[in-house]
Amino acid sequence: MSRKSKGSNEKLVNGLRSVAASLICILAGLLIGFIVLLFIDSKGAFQAILTIIKNFFNYPSGPAALKYFGNTLVKTAPLLMCALSINFCYKVGLFNIGAAGQYVVGAGACLYGALGLGLPWYLCLLMAMLAGAIWGLIVGVLKAYFNVNEVISGIMLNWIGLYLVNILLKTVKEETSPYTKTIKSVNPSALLPTAGLPSLFTNNRYVTIAVPLSIIIAILVWVILEKTTFGYELKATGYNRDAAKYAGMNGNRNIIVTLVIGGVLAGMGAALLYLTGFEQWSVTQSSVPQMGFNGIAATFLGGLNPIGTIFASYFIQHITSGGSYLDKAIYPSQISDLISSIIIYLCGFVLFFKQVMAKRSAARSEKALLKQKDEEKEPEKGGADK
Amino acid sequence: MGSNAADKAASPASQYAVEMRHITKRFPGIIANDDVTLQLKQGEIHALLGENGAGKSTLMSVLFGMYQPEEGEIYRNGRKVSINSPNDANDLGIGMVHQHFKLVQCFTVLENIILGVETTRHGILQKDEARKKVLALSEQYGLKVDPDAVISDITVGMQQRTEILKMLYRDNDVLIFDEPTAVLTPQEIEELMQIMKNLAKEGKSILFISHKLNEIMEIADRCTVLRRGKCIGTVNVKDTNEQELSRMMVGRDVQLVAQKKDATPGDTVLSVENMTVPSRHHKIDAVKGVSFHVRAGEIVCIAGIDGNGQTELVYGLTGLEPVSSGTVTLCGQDITHASIRQRSQYLSHIPEDRQKHGLVLDYPLDYNMVLERYWQKEFTKGGFLRRAAIRSYANQLIDKFDVRSGQGAATITRSMSGGNQQKAILARELDKDHKLLVAVQPTRGLDVGAIEFIHKELIAERDKGTAVLLVSLELEEVMNVSDRILVMYEGQIVGQFDPKKTDPEELGLYMAGARRQEVKA
Predict the structure, then answer these.
(1) Best mutation target, B320, B367, B371, B433, to test chain A (most A CBs within 10 A)
(2) What CATH number does the domain containing B476 carry?
(3) Pairing verdict, β B467-472 and B299-303
(4) Domain boundary among B432, B449, B479
(5) What residues have CB less than 8 Å from B79, skipping those under 6 apart?
(6) Does B145 lie in the same domain as B64?
(7) Contact predicate B449/B442, CB 8 Å
(8) Distance, CA of B218 to CA of B207 (rounded, Å)
């Protein structure tokens, strides 16, 4: 019994440490962001940082705030999916920077399915997942059989994916703009079901089942990694490929399966955004959407835990959205990106802060032990002298 | 002056190259060194003996400046010193060969030796002088190295000589050897012993950390014994014997020679015909058409110098590497191309490298206990792990094999001592169903108590009717435990012996390739 309680206690302390480390990063990020704002405009800096933190609370009326809270959630869902993709692969020892590209091909597939083929939403969603899976599969096969570093092949596929999608979606773009047609006007059946959710957010019709779905998938990812035999095997492969082989696990298959799942998650993330009709794809864009990269930050800020990642993704989206309310007359429009980047950058230090905390607590317990020893020794010495 | 009574005197006698007085070093939860005093005389070989976890390495790390002690003082040639980093130690002429070498794998021997003390002219490396000095040193002490060989290409023995040259190049005259023989072949050990004697003769003072009694008896002048962090005593080696030393070390009498009945071999369990395994590193085959068999109820030992194909032979048997030709038959089934999991039904494998192959170090102990069986019904239901079943099974093994760790089954395996990691693997492999046990250097790096335990378990396995294939580099172990000895040399089996009718000298000749017989499987 005591064995068990000691172990779970350790786990709890470890979990609390992760949360504390993430909070430190957030605070430090906000502080540095504040300093940058001070340099630009010292008088309004405090107001500006407040604006970023407040995000939708900037709207005075409750219903309006609620509506824009909905918008933040709409963009959190795809971010969470990308973060989960990276989180899942990371646990298996793979750095899936290709999530960005898997997200891109997912976007291309679901938009083409909706606008070009006129498919219903669930088939569009499946197409996005399939496209992501194929992109993940390529990386996985290259890694497993040719030992090509997944970061390199992932980054290259990001660009290949972007331009292929641009070419593909040119067939379904508006005549006068570089944007794809709206799903609502062409094929409303491809919009994700709302399940009555908009009524909770002052009729924000972009809030769909995507939000609860992404949270359910986060929980699912956690269950797979922590509770299932499949997760046991994948993590063993991630920690020690040689031992996994020794134990009779199929390392190559595990690498491929992992990256395919990572691709499915990221591709699905794109569908969860574009099938709400919230954004249109610009076929002239020449940079890979940030969503996949921000997912890396969300994963680390979430302490590499799928559940923690839910909150981290929300937070990152919260300040990103908040940044858009800054007074563009005073602050350059990139300022919100800058501040969120600073915080995101600091997120990379979560593990570092966690280590520092663990070290300090070890030092503390050593000191306590020393003190205890000294106290024990004192009377002992006195006795020996006699 | 040399009497033991004089050692107790606290006067700063300069007869001591190094004197560590009343050293206490604590870590959270344990006292690694508890009031330990160690005196190293000029020009002597002083052994530091103790079980795994007795505090030998900690004490040496204190001397080398990697840890600061809470209490105690260090004297160098009678002068009190404080050593706060390995650089301080180096300035005081103290050098150390670590158990795990600190070499840059992709650098040459020469580059490794001069690393950190390079001579440069106008910012350009001057290697010629360094080369001359290295060659002179290697000549003087009989340390054969090729200065231009890249570390990753050379043998462990040569890597160790590089480490020794590193110390000599820095003009160190107190040399610490942390379990230097753990990774060496018998011949290399022989050479190292000679090198150490030469060094002592030239006036170097040597601290030799070991738990191998025969080595200590052979070369050490004096020996300090640690047990559970405490200093048990310092003895003159010529006034003592192995039995007494082991009693001091373990705190009880230890059977140094395994007791066993004669083997009663049964049916053939494993038979290998003309097996060839390609080498990962070279173009030539590592195992060249080897044939042998192992029967139920016997321990067959493969002896040989490290790197003669034993590792690849085991890889081929266990499925870690593909076999390029030949057949392997296990319990009547052709398993030449079977998957590792298929083989695992009949085969238990204690791997050579326990941390690389044997364990997922970041998993808790209980997860490692089911590493090959997690998918079986007992531990999995509907795709989910049965954690309670895994935990209780692990606890059962932990109790049965006395595996010690901080938090029982929940302990992260990385934090366990090497001996207990090995016990965990042993527990797992012996408890799982098997007809054949392949044990590769199962006692490597372990202390006398743990070796005794593992040898007993191997013999118990044999007596239960398991076929045991033991691969060992230690001749003593080979002679002690096996019922039949096969000697491997350059990828071939060059001799078969009955341990009762041979001796280490004869085996040595075959291991070195000086003799060979035609062996029939």
Answers:
(1) B371
(2) 3.40.50.300
(3) parallel
(4) B432
(5) B12
(6) yes
(7) no
(8) 14
Residue B39 backbone phi and psi in degrees, to 5: -125, 120
Nearest to A369 among B26, B360, B375 (CB): B26
Q: Cα–Cα distance between A336 and A51 in angstroms, integer?
A: 10
Whether residue A278 lies inside any domain: the answer is yes
Mutate to test the interface with B, among A223, A232, A364, A369 (most CBs of B within 10 A): A232
Helix or strand run (H / E) with residue B333: strand B333-334
* pLDDT tens sequence across A291-309: 998 898 889 888 889 999 9
Give the whole-angstrom CA distance, residue A307 versus residue A218. Answer: 6
Q: Which residue of B has its CA nearest to A365?
A: B28
In a domain, A141, yes or no: yes
DSSP for residue A141: H
Q: How far apart are CA B275 and CA A28, in angstroms?
A: 62
Digit-coded pLDDT (tens) for B345-376: 999 999 988 888 999 999 999 999 999 999 99
Model-level pTM?
0.76
Cα distance between residue A256 and residue A265, in whole Å: 14
On whether both B295 and B403 belong to a single domain, the answer is no
Which residues lie across from B276 on neighbouring strands? B325
**pLDDT at residue B10 in the model:** 44
CB contact under 8 A, A246 and B357: yes
Q: Which residue matches tokens 């004490």? A: B59
Alpha carbon of A313: minimum distance to chain B alpha carbons (Å):
27
Give how far Cα A254 sits from Cα of A74, A140, A249, B381, B382, Å: 32, 9, 8, 20, 19
ipTM: 0.79
Answer whether A74's CB lies under 8 Å from A133's CB. no
Does residue B84 sit in the same domain as residue B60? yes
How is residue B174 annotated by DSSP?
Answer: E
Residues B229 and B118 in one domain: yes
Of B250, B281, B313, the position where a domain reaches its end is B250
What residues in chain A have per-residue pLDDT under 70? Answer: 1-10, 333, 336, 340, 344, 347-348, 366-367, 369-386
B377 at A interface, C-beta within 8 A: no
Domain residue limits at A242:
80-318
CA distances from A62 to A66, A73, A315, B363 (A): 6, 16, 20, 49
In angstroms, the CA A131 to CA A116 distance is 16
Q: Would A222 be classed as within a structural domain?
A: yes
